[in-house]
Amino acid sequence: MREIPFWLYLLVCAGVTYLIRMLPLVLMKKKIKNRFLLSFLYYMPYAVLSVMTIPAIFSSTANMVSAAIGFVVAVILAYFEKSLVQVAALSCVAVFIAEYVMKLL
Amino acid sequence: MKNNSFLKGITDGLPICLGYLSVSFAFGIFATESGMTLLQTLLISMTNVTSAGQLAAVPIMAAGGSLAELALAQLVINLRYALMSVSLSQKLDKNVSLFDRFVIAFVNTDEVFAVAAGKEGAVGKRFLYGLILTPYLGWSLGTLIGAGAGQILPTAVTSALGIAIYGMFIAIVIPPAKKSRATALCVLAAIALSCAFSYIPGLNQIPGGFTVIICAVLASALFAALSPISIAEEDENNA
């Protein structure tokens, strides 16, 4: 069997991904009036981000303890409504410090 | 309220850009270690702009998998973007043309969508172009650096950067959850479902892309039924 060239892989991969994103955005021209649908669309992004974050965040760093510390720091900062950059950057710093301290112990 | 400042878009896009630098950096290392060349790795990032989809695509390409397998994997993992595009279509200002929609769709990532969805009222084209610019550059640049020089950075740094994107997700979710009890409960329901699909034997065999869709649709539909948003809110959103 002949090997599939890279450009064909790339075309299929990018093509499928783009169509999924593009078709609804281009075809949905009317404003939705249905209250259930509007509510569904309001909740959906928060539900998606929550599902993607937990439990995946706990395996996003070298070990679960440093990830948990980064998670707690992010939650506290977000609760006090710090900016997206601050929350993201400081949770990285927390993970870095936590892993450094754990190495010393 | 109308959001149509290019500069405000850039400002809101910067944290996404920073998060992407780290995530795409990790992708760059992963792809080259899987056997892709630097140019191939960069092209994948520049044409797909999706973390989970790309992570799934590389092993299939590297192993010489079928095009059908690749297409199906992308469909399943990225189908959530269809939901986001439907949602975003409702937020677009009248000044967003058909051409703009074709362009914006290309970079309608989880994070770009989340920021746009979090805005009060409609979002205009200037804001959206500002919003997608730096994340796209960050995604491409991070991939290039990761593919080219990933092995140079100490693992302590790459490990810490791994949490960046999740920190940003948390920063997007918590403030609205603080203000609305129903939103908070919806988030908790989504988390409970997500954990169930990660740990319960049988359920954890379902591919990640499906899991995201199933959990998010169940939680959002449940709360749309139990606690629909008020019509006033809706009018405000459409104003």
Structure description:
The complex is a heterodimer of chains A (105) and B (239). With 105 residues, chain A is an all-alpha fold. Chain A has a domain at 32-104. Chain A is 74% helix and 0% strand. The longest helix of chain A has 22 residues, at 6-27. Chain B folds into two domains: 6-171, no CATH class; 180-239, no CATH class. The longest helix of chain B is centred in the N-terminal third of the chain and has 28 residues, at 6-33. Chain B starts with 5 loop residues before the first helix and ends with a helix. Chains A and B meet through helix 1, helix 2, helix 3 and helix 4 of A and helix 1, helix 2, helix 3, helix 4 and helix 5 of B.
The stretches of 5 or more residues of chain A where confidence is low (pLDDT under 50) are none
Give me the number of helical elements of chain A.
4
Round the Cα radius of gyration of chain B to an integer and report it.
19 Å
H and E string of chain A = HHHH
Q: Mean pLDDT of chain B, as a whole number?
A: 87
Name the structural class of chain B: mainly alpha
Q: Biggest sheet of chain B, open or closed, and with what strands and sense?
A: none
Helix/strand structural class of chain A: mainly alpha
- The level of helicity of chain B is over 70%
Question: Greatest contact pair?
Answer: A-B, 75 and 106 residues
Query: What oligomeric state do these chains adopt?
Result: heterodimer
Strand content of chain B: under 5%
Q: CA-to-CA gap between the ends of chain A?
A: 56 Å
Number of strands of chain B: 0
Number of strands of chain A: 0
Gist of the model:
With 105 residues, chain A is mainly α. Chain A is built from four helices and no strands. With 239 residues, chain B is mostly helical.
